[in-house]
Design goal:
10 helices; single chain; two-stranded antiparallel sheet; mainly alpha
C-alpha cells in the first residue's frame, strides 16, 4: 500500500507526499528494529540472571562442600597424629582395633567435586561475555582455574598404599563400611566399634606401630594435611566472597 502511494506520488511529482510516505517507511523500520533490539536485550538479560542464579547455586554447593571437607580433613589429621603417637609410644595402652582404626582413617584422602557446570557452559558457549563486569569475569576465572588445591588434597600418598598393604582386607572393609561414609558433597567419619570378628588384631596393631618407614610416611602425610587445611580454609573464604559478588550482581540485574 505504501509503495503504491509512493509510486503514484512520484508520477504526479507530489514531493510532499513522497517525503511523508518515506518518513513513514523509515519510522516503521526504525521502530521495528528498536522493538527487536529491546526484545533481544530482554532475552539476553533474562539469560544473564539465569546464569547468575545458577552460579550462585553452584557456589553455595561449594561452600557446603568446603565446610564439610574441612571438618573431615581435620578429623583425618587428628587420627593421623594419634596413630603417630602409637609409633612413638609402642607400649601405650590402647585396644588393638582403635590403633588399627586410627592408622586406617588417617589414610583417607579428600575428593573435592567443585560445582563448575554453569561456568563451563558459559565458557564453551561464549556466554561469559554476557557478564559485563570484567572483575566478576576475572574472579570466576581465577576461582575455577585453581588447580593447586586438588594437587595437594587429592594426592594419594605412599602412606596410604603402605598402611593398606598391612591391614587385612576384611578389617579395611569393616572400617570403610562402619566408620566412614561419603557422598557427592561430603566425606565423614562415623562412631564405630570393633565387631566380634575383628577382635584379634594385636599382630596387625604391632606391625603398624613398629614400622619405621610407615611412621616416616605418616609424618609427611600429616605435614601435607596441615597445608591442605590452610588451602581448604582459603578456598572456602574465596567461595563465600565470590558468592556474595554473584548474588549482588544478580540482584542488580533483575
Amino acid at each position: 500500500m505504501i509503495l503504491r502511494r509512493l509510486s503514484n506520488a512520484f508520477r504526479k511529482q507530489d514531493w510532499f507526499t513522497v517525503v511523508v510516505e518515506t518518513l513513514i517507511v523509515v519510522l516503521g523500520v526504525f521502530i521495528g528494529l528498536q522493538v527487536n533490539n529491546w526484545n533481544e536485550a530482554r532475552t539476553e538479560q533474562a539469560r544473564v540472571v539465569s546464569y547468575l542464579d545458577r552460579l550462585a547455586s553452584d557456589l553455595r554447593s561449594d561452600v557446603t562442600m568446603y565446610e564439610r571437607n574441612f571438618a573431615f580433613k581435620t578429623r583425618a589429621v587428628a587420627e593421623g597424629r594419634l596413630a603417630l603417637a602409637y609409633t612413638q609410644q609402642p607400649n601405650r595402652d590402647a585396644p588393638p582395633f582403635e590403633i588399627v582404626r586410627s592408622f586406617m582413617l588417617a589414610s583417607h584422602a579428600l575428593t573435592l567435586p567443585v560445582a563448575d557446570a554453569t561456568y563451563s557452559e558459559m565458557i564453551s558457549t561464549g556466554d561469559i561475555r554476557l557478564l559485563r563486569d570484567p572483575e566478576l569475569q576475572q574472579g570466576l576465572a581465577s576461582y575455577y582455574s585453581n588447580v593447586d588445591l586438588n594437587d595437594i588434597v587429592e594426592e594419594f600418598p605412599e602412606y596410604r598404599q603402605t598402611v593398606r598393604g598391612i591391614i587385612p582386607l576384611d578389617v579395611q572393609d569393616y572400617i570403610n563400611a562402619a566408620c566412614y561414609r561419603s557422598d557427592r558433597l561430603r566425606q565423614e567419619f562415623l562412631p564405630c566399634k570393633a565387631s566380634v570378628d575383628l577382635l584379634d588384631l594385636e599382630q596387625t596393631a604391632d606391625l603398624l606401630r613398629s614400622d619405621e618407614a610407615l611412621a616416616r610416611e605418616l609424618r609427611y602425610w600429616l605435614s601435607n594435611g596441615g597445608l591442605a587445611l590452610t588451602i581448604l580454609g582459603d578456598q572456602r573464604r574465596g567461595s563465600i566472597e565470590l558468592l556474595r559478588v554473584v548474588e549482588i550482581t544478580a540482584q542488580a540485574a533483575r
